[in-house]
């Protein structure tokens, strides 16, 4: 009887060729010849019934099927690596560092309780937290994980959703006392609204609203715009400058403290997703995976 996974050597060859960028470089790393590697990839493609690599005399490129298979293969090898390290270190506490990048909203208002939970479970691990609204390059800048807001492009990174965060409109009681409360989306145009300019596009981020069951994207216009740090619109709103849109996980505490009031509550009902991403390295650390588990469990518990 043939073994079910006797082709794993060919899978590892495929991953190594992609990682090294050429048959020649991969052959050096694996102490073999380019022709041997080429035959291994051909065997794998024949087994799968799809083309994984486009090969020319000058370069290699992944097909769409190859890109998907590469991601899944790296994830599978990472699980094997983790299983081996878990057995080798069975009964010992996790040690080391995890480098995490997070946007200001999540870092200030979601992460503290999750990081306390993580520290209680893994006291020997150290987290290096970078707070920025810039999308860091995980590989080039040496980050293990990053938290991202919104729909993620197909970048080859592995993503786990943390939560869909509901949003609402917010203003200070002093502003409402001075300007009154809008009664409909149409009346927002007559109010001081606080736009946020998205760093990635240079455009004002639309407010996502719901009106009588319909999704409405409404672009705020105002004489005072904020860029880079979206928490700036919240700070300005709390100081009576106007109305902003923010996440419930920011707004609810402020409303409970009497520092803010919700505006147009009938327009709530939409949300934006947050995800944690990481590069699909075969050597992904157990420490990073432990932090992912805590982040995902915390996000799911609050949904």
Describe the protein's architecture and organization.
This protein is an alpha/beta fold and 303 residues long. The chain folds into 3 domains: 8-88, Winged helix-like DNA-binding domain superfamily/Winged helix DNA-binding domain (Arc Repressor Mutant, subunit A); 96-163 and 273-302, D-Maltodextrin-Binding Protein, domain 2 (3-Layer(aba) Sandwich), CATH 3.40.190.10; 165-272, Periplasmic binding protein-like II (D-Maltodextrin-Binding Protein, domain 2), CATH 3.40.190. The protein is built from 11 helices and 13 strands. The protein has helices at 8-20, 23-30, 34-48, 64-88, 104-109, 111-121, 138-141, 173-179, 231-238, 248-256, 286-302; strands at residues 53-55, 60-62, 96-102, 125-131, 145-149, 158-171, 196-197, 207-211, 214-218, 226-227, 244-247, 261-263, 271-278. A hairpin with a 2-residue loop joins β8 and β9 (214-218). The longest helix has 25 residues, at 64-88. The protein is elongated and about 75 Å long. 30% of the residues are buried.
Brief summary:
With 303 residues, the protein is α/β, with parallel strands linked by helices. It has helices spanning 8-20, 23-30, 34-48, 64-88, 104-109, 111-121, 138-141, 173-179, 231-238, 248-256, 286-302, and strands at 53-55, 60-62, 96-102, 125-131, 145-149, 158-171, 196-197, 207-211, 214-218, 226-227, 244-247, 261-263, 271-278.
Cα end-to-end separation: 49 Å
Could you report the average pLDDT, rounded to the nearest whole number? 87
- The CATH superfamily of the largest domain is Periplasmic binding protein-like II
What is the molecular shape? elongated
Second-tier CATH architecture of the largest domain: 3-Layer(aba) Sandwich
- Contiguous uncertain segments of 5+ residues: none
Helix and strand run? HHHEEHEHHEHEEHEEEEHEHEEH
Report helical residue fraction.
40-55%
**DSSP strand tally:** 13
Please report the first level of CATH classification, the CATH class of the largest domain: Alpha Beta
Major sheet attributes: 7 strands, mixed
> What is the CA-based Rg, rounded?
25 Å
């Amino acid at each position: 009887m043939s073994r079910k996974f006797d082709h794993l050597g060919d899978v590892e060859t495929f991953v190594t060729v992609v990682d090294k960028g050429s048959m020649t470089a991969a052959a050096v790393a694996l102490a073999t010849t380019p022709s041997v590697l080429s035959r291994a990839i051909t065997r794998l493609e024949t087994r799968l019934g799809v083309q994984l690599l486009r090969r020319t005399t000058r370069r290699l490129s992944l097909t769409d099927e190859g890109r998907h298979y590469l991601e899944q293969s790296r994830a599978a090898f990472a699980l094997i690596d983790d299983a081996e390290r878990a057995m080798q270190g069975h009964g010992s506490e996790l040690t080391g560092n995890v480098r995490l990048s997070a946007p200001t909203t999540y870092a200030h208002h979601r992460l503290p309780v999750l990081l306390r939970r993580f520290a209680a479970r893994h006291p020997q691990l150290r987290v290096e937290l970078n707070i920025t609204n810039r999308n860091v390059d995980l590989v080039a800048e040496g980050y293990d994980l990053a938290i991202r807001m919104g729909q993620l492009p197909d970048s080859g990174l592995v993503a786990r959703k943390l939560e869909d965060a509901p949003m609402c409109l917010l203003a200070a009681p002093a502003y409402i006392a001075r300007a009154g409360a809008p009664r409909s989306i149409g009346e927002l145009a007559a109010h001081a609204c606080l736009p946020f300019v998205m760093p990635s596009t240079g455009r004002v981020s639309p407010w996502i609203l719901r009106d009588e069951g319909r999704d409405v994207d409404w672009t705020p216009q105002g004489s005072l715009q904020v860029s880079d740090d979206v928490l700036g619109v919240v700070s300005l709103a709390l100081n009576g400058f106007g109305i902003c849109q923010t996440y419930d996980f920011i707004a609810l505490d402020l409303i409970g403290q009497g520092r803010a009031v919700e505006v147009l509550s009938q327009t709530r009902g939409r949300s934006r997703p947050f995800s944690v991403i990481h590069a699909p390295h075969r050597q992904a650390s157990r420490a990073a995976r432990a932090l992912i588990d805590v982040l995902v469990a915390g996000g799911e518990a609050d949904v």
